[in-house]
């Protein structure tokens, strides 16, 4: 039986090996004979893997598995490797196959014993085109294929078809992978345009033209980063950055001008960072500041954030001065009044943040009263400023009590007094406050008439039975709409608007208000839109989304908007674009709503100079994502802007100098009850901070 089996094996091997020799003689095939130490006789041979697909430039290692006498598996013996098409997939003597060109090749392995007889097996190799992959292998299969990837630095080109360069890259984006797009694709409206596969989880960021007035729908649920990217294309710079986390797998982005988009004049670019490379950049302690009585307690919290604001796991170690703090962040104030610190340090990253703690001793109170007489009294009232670092609203004949003041002398000033009114006596005044007592100070104000029917004064009264825009605009025959006033007024003119609701939503855009004067005023003779003293004048419209702001000015100078209530559902209340010398004062502005994370502003100032924003009350300003882009006041590329004596509350962010500009002054503003710690946020540009004070929540009574 054994000799019969040996005979059958020998016949089979001789037959197969003979067939192989015949094939080699008739059809040339690249082959390499690799002689390995192994058994004397190979009976069966298999190739693993037997069926595989690779791309051009990739390799795969094949293994010849043989079985010798006794059916014992091994990988020894002599193996002759060959490829049916070396132009597609050549094979080395060790069985390493390289993808050279698209196509299919059969890789054969002939097994032999020392008698040079053997049996063959094969594997099928399919070679596909070269993948569009990133230098790090983070993304594969980038489409459009004309786009490329690189790790860019300042001075590099960020488009494949333009010479625009990167001029400023925030540190948060050091080492990120960029997808260089084509600016010629800036008008693409497809809902699915750029695509690639993430080989690992990561964060995808889109740097978008700052001129956008409405984001595409596909980008609206992304989070806007606080940093911007400077580029040499002055029209689109700085690029606004939006980010979103993705798992490994397919990522598809829409076109630059896909559904919902408008305003962008340049194409976006894409940045990526794999999740494992996100670094913890900062610790944030909350609350950032607090005032406590001796022995009082305050719970602090801390979080560690990575480069894009995501919270990461942390190990916080607490320490404090002026009192004691527990391992959980509960601070107990000591008995000695003074200014102290609470410190949260992450033990893993070695980074820290600090909160300010003020421990106050026995305090006193201050009662402030006002008495106003004369003509054309200011219906918006005044503000009380103590020690130049905060303000509190007070009516024209009113009384308020300020508590929690440390004992000693304090400077008390009555601010927000209209130009036709004056404070009798000194202003500010020095008042001494005793511990446990209440000091008092009284201000008397006298006002004179601002006009009424004389040359250069007009009236609008929507409720007057004879109101008409064809009237002369006198008090007896007033105009009916603000549009007529905007059309007629010239330098030195004042229009007094009487009580009622005025709808303003025609002839406007996101940057041009519905009521935009036809003419400019001068430094000595401004054009004045003023609510009639004591009257509630509401300006509104029904335009949503970016819609149209009802009041403001675009390319008109020395305009005064005084005493109105602005209540609209669109993303902007009052705008000042390309203007000099304009004053926005004594207004109540609220109700603005913007989509997604879009800019949503109570007052927006852009590309303007010497603008004054004073004595306004601004609240309830929000966008769909409740981001810092929803603010009471936002300033872009403007200089010499003075923001003073305003009360801001009940919104996400307070006052923002978002981009560019210089010598802007923020002073005597009361910012409270904001959801994020952004009383004053200088994003880009240069500010002068004068007596600026703000609070989050109900942390202060002043």
Rg for CA atoms: 38 Å
The count of helical stretches stands at 2
Say how many strands there are: 63
Strand content is: 35-45%
Q: What strand line-up does the widest sheet have?
A: 39-40-42-45-48-52-56-59-62
SSE class: mainly beta
Ranges where pLDDT stays below 50 over 5 or more residues in a row are 1-44, 69-76, 451-455, 683-702
* Broad shape: flat
Roughly how many Å apart are the termini? Answer: 109 Å
How would a crystallographer describe the biggest sheet? 9 strands, parallel
The amount of helix comes to: under 10%
Report mean pLDDT, rounded to a whole number: 81
Structure description:
The strands form 14 sheets. A 9-stranded parallel beta sheet has the order 39-40-42-45-48-52-56-59-62, with no helix packed on it. The chain starts with a helix and ends in an 8-residue tail after the last strand. The chain has 2 helices and 63 strands. The protein is mainly beta and 702 residues long.
How does the SSE layout of this entry go?
Elements: H1 2-26, E1 30-34, E2 44-48, E3 51-55, E4 59-61, E5 63-67, E6 73-74, E7 78-83, E8 96-98, E9 103-112, E10 120-128, E11 139-143, E12 148-150, E13 166-168, E14 177-180, E15 194-198, E16 202-208, E17 223-231, E18 239-246, E19 249-253, E20 269-274, E21 280-286, E22 289-292, E23 297-299, E24 301-306, E25 311-312, E26 316-320, E27 323-325, E28 330-333, E29 338-346, E30 352-359, E31 364-374, E32 382-386, E33 392-394, E34 399-405, E35 408-415, E36 421-424, E37 429-433, E38 438-447, E39 457-460, H2 482-488, E40 494-497, E41 500-503, E42 527-531, E43 537-540, E44 551-554, E45 559-562, E46 565-567, E47 572-577, E48 583-585, E49 588-590, E50 593-594, E51 600-606, E52 612-614, E53 617-619, E54 622-623, E55 630-636, E56 642-644, E57 647-651, E58 653-659, E59 664-667, E60 670-674, E61 680-682, E62 687-690, E63 693-694
Parallel strand pairs: 3-10, 22-30, 31-38, 39-40, 40-42, 41-43, 42-45, 43-46, 44-47, 45-48, 46-49, 47-51, 48-52, 49-53, 50-54, 51-55, 52-56, 53-57, 55-58, 56-59, 57-60, 58-61, 59-62, 60-63
Antiparallel strand pairs: 1-7, 2-5, 4-8, 5-6, 7-9, 9-10, 11-15, 12-14, 13-17, 14-20, 15-19, 16-18, 16-20, 17-18, 21-24, 23-28, 24-25, 26-29, 27-28, 29-30, 31-34, 32-33, 32-35, 35-37, 36-38
């Amino acid at each position: 039986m054994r000799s019969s089996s040996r005979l059958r094996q020998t016949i089979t091997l001789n037959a197969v090996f003979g067939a192989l020799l015949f094939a080699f003689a008739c059809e040339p095939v690249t082959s390499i004979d690799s002689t390995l130490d192994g058994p004397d006789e190979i009976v069966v041979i298999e190739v693993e893997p037997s069926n595989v697909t690779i791309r051009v430039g990739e390799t795969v290692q094949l293994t010849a598995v043989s079985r010798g006498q006794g059916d014992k598996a091994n990988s020894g013996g002599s193996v002759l490797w060959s490829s049916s098409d070396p132009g597609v997939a050549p094979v080395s003597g060790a069985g390493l196959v390289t993808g050279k060109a698209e196509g299919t090749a059969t890789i054969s392995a002939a097994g032999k014993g020392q008698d040079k007889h053997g049996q063959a097996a094969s594997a099928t190799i399919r070679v596909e085109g070269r993948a569009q992959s990133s230098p790090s292998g983070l993304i594969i299969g980038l489409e459009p294929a004309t786009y490329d990837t690189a790790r860019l630095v300042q001075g590099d080109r960020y488009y494949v078809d333009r010479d625009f360069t990167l001029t400023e890259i925030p540190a948060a984006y050091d080492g990120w992978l960029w997808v260089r797009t084509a600016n010629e694709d800036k008008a693409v409206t497809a809902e699915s345009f750029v695509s690639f596969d993430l080989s690992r989880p990561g964060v995808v960021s889109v740097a978008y033209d700052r001129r956008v007035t409405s984001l595409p729908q596909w980008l609206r649920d992304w989070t806007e980063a606080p940093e911007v990217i400077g580029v040499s294309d002055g029209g689109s710079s700085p690029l606004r950055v939006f980010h979103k986390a993705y798992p490994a797998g397919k990522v598809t982005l829409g076109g630059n001008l896909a559904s919902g988009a408008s305003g962008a004049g340049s194409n976006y670019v894409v940045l990526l960072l794999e999740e494992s490379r996100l670094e913890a950049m900062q610790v944030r302690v909350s609350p950032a500041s607090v005032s406590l009585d001796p022995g009082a307690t305050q719970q602090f919290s801390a979080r560690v954030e990575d480069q894009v604001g995501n919270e990461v796991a942390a190990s916080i170690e607490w320490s404090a001065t002026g009192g004691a703090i527990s391992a959980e962040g509960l601070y107990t104030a000591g008995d000695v009044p003074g200014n102290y610190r609470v410190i949260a340090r992450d033990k893993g990253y070695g980074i820290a943040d600090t909160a300010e703690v003020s421990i106050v001793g026995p305090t006193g109170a201050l009662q402030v009263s006002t008495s106003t007489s004369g003509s054309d009294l200011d219906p918006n009232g005044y503000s009380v400023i103590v020690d130049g670092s905060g303000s509190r609203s007070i009516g024209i004949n009113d009384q308020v009590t300020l508590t929690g003041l440390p004992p000693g002398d304090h400077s008390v000033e009555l601010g927000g007094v209209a130009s036709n009114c004056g404070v009798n006596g000194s202003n500010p005044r020095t008042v001494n406050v005793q511990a446990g007592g209440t000091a008092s100070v009284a201000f008397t104000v006298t006002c004179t008439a601002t006009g009424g029917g004389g040359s250069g004064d007009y009236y609008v009264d929507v409720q007057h039975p004879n109101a008409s825009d064809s009237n002369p605009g006198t008090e007896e025959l007033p105009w009916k709409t603000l549009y007529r006033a905007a059309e007629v007024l010239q330098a030195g003119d004042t229009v007094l608007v009487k009580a009622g609701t005025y709808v303003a939503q025609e002839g406007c855009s996101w940057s041009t208000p519905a009521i935009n004067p036809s003419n400019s005023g001068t430094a000595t003779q401004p054009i004045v839109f003023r609510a009639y003293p004591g009257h509630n004048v509401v300006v509104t419209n029904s335009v949503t989304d970016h819609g149209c702001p009802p009041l403001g000015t675009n390319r008109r100078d020395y305009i005064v908007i005084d005493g109105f209530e602005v209540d609209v559902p669109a993303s902007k209340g009052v705008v000042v674009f390309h203007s000099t010398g304009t004053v926005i004062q004594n207004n109540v502005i609220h109700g603005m709503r913007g989509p997604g994370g879009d800019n949503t502003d109570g007052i927006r100032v852009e590309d303007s100079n010497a603008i004054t924003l004073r004595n306004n009350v601004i609240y309830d300003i929000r966008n769909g994502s409740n981001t810092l882009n929803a603010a009471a006041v936002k300033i872009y590329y403007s200089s010499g802007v003075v923001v003073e004596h305003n009360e801001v509350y009940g919104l996400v962010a307070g006052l923002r100098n978002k981009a560019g500009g210089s010598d802007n002054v923020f002073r005597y503003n009361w910012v409270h009850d904001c959801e994020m710690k952004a009383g004053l946020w200088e994003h880009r540009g240069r500010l002068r901070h004068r007596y600026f004070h703000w609070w989050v929540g109900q942390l202060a009574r002043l």
